[in-house]
Model the fold of this input.
Amino acid sequence: MKKKPTMTFRLEDDFYEKLDRYTRSLLNEGFGLFHEEFKNIDDFYQRAVEDKSERDDHNFRRTPRSFYLIEAIYYQIFEYANREAFNKARDTVIILPDCLSLMHDKCKKERRELGKVCTRCVPNCHINHIMQIADIYKVEGYFSKRALTEQISNIRRQKPDLAVIGISCILTLASGMRAAKEAGVPSRGVFLNFTGCEHWADEPFPTETAVDRVRAILEEKYGVPDPSP
Done:
């Protein structure tokens, strides 16, 4: 007798009804839980919709609040799925956003083969703080390129057993983790605390991130550093 194929999933007649009910419940609970974090999104979204200028980032700016929540959840699922493989990978690289630079367009980053690197030009810059932590674990950091999958693939050619830490805003961190997945690299991430780049601000300003969370990710992987010289 021929064996029946095993289906990975099979939708029942009420699947869409259950999905709709679950999604509405998820969004309602999420918006209540993250009310303070998301309270300005609707106003920004409405202004973006009403903006009739010829800027090229309208689609990005016109992202409804629900997608912020879903992207945040997507990020957290990646965190669950990638953690073990991330910790087992020998090498780690941090992918840094330009908007985190305190000096913005005056940042003295230097161009290297795999991406631009921090030169530690300003003591109180968040990127400088991150790279000081990275130095303890002998971890490299590169500013993100637009072709992120290609950049991670190029790094992986030099470091075959690679994992990456990405730092980005809510709307782009999960997509960066998807890019790492496409390159065959496990990733973890840390959100920016707020946005300040040209997509959100008429006059861009430096962003910030949870530097201690970067430290915790590296400490979990490599252990507490030896304080002895």
The mean pLDDT is 94. Strands lie at 91-96, 140-143, 162-168, 187-191.
